[in-house]
Specification:
alpha+beta, Endonuclease I-creI, 2 domains, 4-stranded antiparallel beta sheet, 8 helices, about 15% strand
């Protein structure tokens, strides 16, 4: 039941439900004006007070996302995450934890990522400006080490300890790889195709390092002028033998060379 009470700023009588508030205001405007008049500058009870380093640290910990639990990722999930980060995957962070984000035109792919990575996720949303869907995980201390490993100077770079496992290669291809038939417009029955990775966001040095990692698993590739990686013809079938079949329907067109 509402009770009649007087506003602490304008003295206007109004009705409200009873609560434990020390002050009462008839509107948000009155509350904002009262705070501006009574809690700013020297009127603020904390004005001129210095907090100790320990107190600041405790306040920072209390406010940070580190209160979210760590998540245990197995070897396969780490390989998948590395593959996604080779592509369009991204990690944000604060001082204590990180979160995974990604955009994609296929909602099915993002739903798949949410299922295979055991993180806490926000709902998928659609960005009309860019015409694609987005996912965002909750902050977790587990992803902080990935942030430090992949973004040593706050810019994405290839970690030197990365392993190009089949799962890594598969999700790299799903996330950022492409297949095209450049001769189709001239020769309808042409079966020549190219496999490319849009690695132009990395430095040439990083891409040359990736080429050496691909050679370690028997896959030969070259670096194009646009700083993109192309799988050589002699390694195309081996490439698809390594990654296997597409786990989702929306990207099966990347395997259409078999059709």
């Amino acid at each position: 039941m509402k009770i009649k009470i007087k506003c602490d700023r304008c003295n206007k009588n109004f009705e409200k439900y009873p609560n434990n508030s020390k002050y009462n205001f008839c509107s948000y405007g009155c509350k904002s004006l009262w705070q501006r008049e009574n809690l700013r500058g020297k009127k603020n009870p904390f004005y001129g007070m210095n907090h100790s380093r320990k107190a600041k640290r405790l306040m920072s910990l209390k406010k940070s996302h580190s209160r979210n639990p760590s998540v245990l990722l197995n070897k396969q999930q780490i390989q998948i995450l590395n593959g996604l980060l080779l592509g369009d995957g991204h990690i944000d962070s604060n001082n204590f934890s990180g979160r995974y984000t990604q955009g994609c035109k296929h909602r099915e792919f993002l739903e798949h990522v949410k299922k295979i990575l055991p993180l806490e996720w926000s709902p998928i949303w659609y960005d009309r400006r860019w015409g694609c869907y987005h996912i965002k995980s909750h902050f977790t201390p587990t992803l902080l080490k990935f942030k430090k490993n992949w973004y040593p100077d706050n810019k994405k770079a290839i970690p030197k300890d990365i392993e190009i496992a089949p799962e890594t290669l598969l999700y790299w291809f799903l996330s950022d790889g492409s297949i095209r038939f450049p001769n189709k417009y001239k020769f309808k029955n042409s079966k020549y195709f190219e496999i490319k990775f849009a690695t132009d966001g990395f430095t040439s040095k990083d891409n040359l390092f990736l080429l050496s990692k691909l050679r370690d698993v028997g896959i030969k590739a070259s670096l194009l002028k646009r700083n993109q990686i192309r799988i050589l013809s002699e390694s195309k079938e081996l490439f698809f033998d390594v990654i296997g079949e597409s786990p989702i329907e929306c990207y099966k067109y990347k395997w259409r060379w078999k059709m």
